[in-house]
Each structure stands twice: as C-alpha cells, then as structure tokens.
Design goal:
Elements: H1 7-37, H2 44-62, H3 73-89, H4 97-119, E1 132-135, E2 138-141, H5 142-164, H6 166-176, H7 178-183, H8 188-210, H9 220-235, H10 240-260, H11 263-266, H12 269-280
Antiparallel strand pairs: 1-2
Helix pairs in contact: 1-5, 1-6, 1-8, 1-9, 1-10, 2-3, 2-8, 2-9, 3-8, 5-6, 5-8, 6-8, 9-10, 9-12
Length: 291
C-alpha cells in the first residue's frame, strides 16, 4: 500500500495519465481547429500517422536515438496543415459545414489508402527508448515517461502561446467571434490558416510520440481519431482545456478498464465514452451550451 492506495491502482492511474497526456496533445490540436473554424477535421488522425512515419524516416536515415528527432514532424505537419486550409478548405469556408466535413473525410481516406499503397500495411516501431524506471514498487516504461514529458511541454507551450502572445489572442478572438475579430482589424483568413497549421502540428507531434510506444501502420489514424473525438466530446467541443481534461480522463479510464477486464475490451472504452456523453451531456464538461 502507498498512502492508503493499493500500489497496483497507483500504477494503473499513473500509466493512464502518461497515455492521456499524449491523447491530449492530439485532442487539443483538433479542438483548436474546431474552435476557430467550426470544422471537424476528419483527416486529423492521418496527420498523426504522417508524424509517426516522419519520425521513423528520420530515425532510419540518421540512425540516431537522439530524442530531439521527435520534433522533426512538427514543422512538416504545420506546413502541410496550412496548405490544406489555404488551398482546400478556405475556398469552402462560406459553404455548408457538411462540405468541409466530406472534404476532410475524403482527404482522410486518400491519405490512409495512399499510405497503405506506398508504405504497406506492415507494422513499424521507432525504438528510441528501452527499459523501465523503477520507483519503489512502481515501474514505468521509459518510452512512456519521455513521450509524456514531451507532450506536457508541447501542450503547455501552445496553451501559453494562445493565452499570452498577440497572435494567440487573435486566434482566441477569431474563435469567439470571427466577424467581430475582422471588424477589429484581424485578418481572419490568415488566422484560420495559422490555426489549422498549429492544430495539424499538434497531431504530427502526437504521432511522433506514439511511434516510440506503439507499433503502427498507415491505419493508425483511424484508431487515434476515435480516441481524439471521444476526448474532445467529453471535454467540450472547441475548448482547449476541455480537450486536455477529456483526454486525461480517457487515458485513465482505458488503463483501468484494461486492468479490470482485458486490453481488447478496454479498446471499446472510447466508444462507450463517446456514446454516453452524446446521450447524457452533449456539450461535454467545458463545452458551451448552444442556444
């Protein structure tokens, strides 16, 4: 026992939080896009997949185990996200919301099937870290600890950027009321492009981190987009902090479900969360009730 808590439950709790902070990086990125543009980016999971393969490519090319290679995917997916917004989504911003939804869904299918064609369905892994850190009766994989640390730093940096920087303030203003932001002299079009790039970069960063802890193939986007959706629905659509809270709850819930039942059944936890929240609290924990 540790302070009245069974060690095994403490192990499960911390393990769930370590996974949850990586989910949070992806979830906060998607919620940033939802908040600024009202777009549910169905290709968000594929941007995570791209981040994982970029990290694998750099690892194989350089042959290094320097953890800084986890950052390489960020600028690449940032630029890719801005190009997607500028050339594909921006011309459709005045159309019906279903149009952008179908476009991002088509992009998701294109990227995943293209990935399967080019990269094959073989599972890959980036072995940057090995071993476990033992603390008393607790043991945690070093890979999970390092990637969780990266996720916390990156998510915190984006949050501070949004709260403290002038451009971050413009992004928040556009999220709250695009017309009023435009009237105040903010270039809403450029802000949307920047925000989509930033959200995509967060997905790419999450993919880089996932590549060191999970075996992955081009279909990984489908798995993680579900977890991302569950997190933002639970936390509240469009809320950066809500996405963070929802992701942490999801990570801990999955870890507990895996301990109580099996890992296969635990994979259903995100589905259960998604359905339950939509039925009983559709606005999520921190979502704003629409009138």
């Amino acid at each position: 026992m540790l302070e009245g808590i069974p060690v095994i439950w403490l192990q499960v709790l911390v393990s769930g939080l370590l996974v949850g902070v990586v989910y949070a990086l992806s979830a906060c990125g998607l919620n940033l896009i939802v908040g600024v543009m009202g777009i549910v980016n169905m290709a968000h999971g594929e941007q995570l997949m791209i981040g994982a393969y970029i990290t694998l490519g750099v690892y194989l090319w350089l042959g290094t185990q320097n953890p800084l290679i986890l950052l390489v995917a960020i600028p690449v997916t940032f630029v890719l996200g801005m190009m997607i917004q500028k050339y594909l989504l921006e011309p459709m911003m005045e159309s019906l919301e279903v149009g952008t939804l179908l476009l991002t869904f088509g992009l998701s299918v294109f990227l995943s099937t293209g990935g399967l064609f080019v990269l094959s369905a073989n599972f890959r892994f980036v072995p940057l870290f090995s071993g476990s850190l033992v603390w008393g009766e607790l043991a945690f994989p070093i890979a999970r600890l390092v990637t969780a640390g990266f996720a916390v730093v990156l998510t915190g940096a984006i949050y501070l950027f949004l709260r403290k920087h002038r451009i971050g303030g413009a992004i928040r203003a556009t999220s709250q009321n695009a017309e009023a932001a435009s009237a105040c002299g903010i270039d809403v079009r450029k802000i949307r492009i920047l925000a989509f790039g930033l959200g995509s970069a967060m997905a790419g960063a999450a993919g880089a981190l996932v590549s060191t802890s999970y075996a992955f193939n081009p279909d990984i986007g489908m798995t993680f987009i579900l977890k991302t959706f569950a997190a933002i629905v639970l936390g509240g659509m469009g809320s950066f902090v809500g996405g963070l809270i929802g992701a942490l709850i999801l990570g801990v819930g999955e870890a507990m479900a895996a301990y109580i039942t099996t890992a296969q059944i635990a994979e259903m936890f995100a589905y259960v969360i998604l359905v339950a929240v939509l039925l009983f609290r559709p606005n999520g924990i921190m979502g704003i009730k629409k009138t």
